[in-house]
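[Meeting: bench + compute handoff]

Bench side (C.D.) handed over the final construct sequence. Compute side (W.E.) agreed to return the predicted structure before the next meeting so the bench team could plan truncations. Sequence as handed over:
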Amino acid sequence: MKKDLIDAVENKSRKKEIPYFEIGDTVDVHCRIEEGGKTRVQVFSGIVIARKGRGMNEMFTVRRIVSDEGVERTFPLHSPNIVDIKPLRSGKVRRAKLYYLRERSGKSVRLPKRHSKHTATT
């Protein structure tokens, strides 16, 4: 009974369409940001290094390099502030978590490309 009520509440706020992306993919995450009384959409692009949780609690972490400094941001998958997620490039990986990329710099951060149908053709 209790689980049915929780599922009913979660299904109302769960997103219907979630694009398919995996660990190692380069994605553009379009976030809604509110500054003062205005809202705008900001794009955070980087490599997905982790996914964790399930259902409403699912989160994913995106890492990018900004002026020789690594920046990581964790997004809730079903957040209303996430406008869109666009997979751009698929990377070939053999692990579920890519935390080893934190110690790397320069060209060694790049992942080899994997040919996949779920990423955008560029």
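W.E. noted at the follow-up: The chain has one helix and five strands. C.D. will use this when planning the next construct.
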